Amino acid sequence: MDDYPSYDAVGLAALVRDGQATPADLLEAARARLEQVNPRLNAVVRAVDPPAAASDGPFAGVPFLLKDLHQDLAGLPTSSGSRSMVSVPAEQTATVVQRWLDAGLVVFGKTNTPEFGAKGITEPELFGPARNPWNTEHTPGGSSGGAAAAVAAGVVPCAGASDGGGSIRIPASACGLFGLKPSRGLIPAGPARAEGLGGTATDGVISRSVRDTAAMLDVLAGPTTMSPYLAAGPATPFADEVGLEPGRLRIGLCTASAINPNPHPEAVAAARAAGDLLDELGHEVVELPSQPFDDATLAKDFLTSWFVSCAHSMADCKAVSGASDSAFELDTRTMAALGRATDPVDLLRAIERRHEHTRRLAEFHESYDFLLTPATATPPPKIGAFDTPAPVRVAQRALLTVKAAGLLRHTPLVDQLIHENLSWVPYTQLANLTGRPAMSVPLHWTAGGLPIGAQFVGRLGADGALLRLAAQLEQARPWADRRPALA
Question: Would you call 143 a catalytic residue per the annotation?
Answer without folding.
Answer: yes
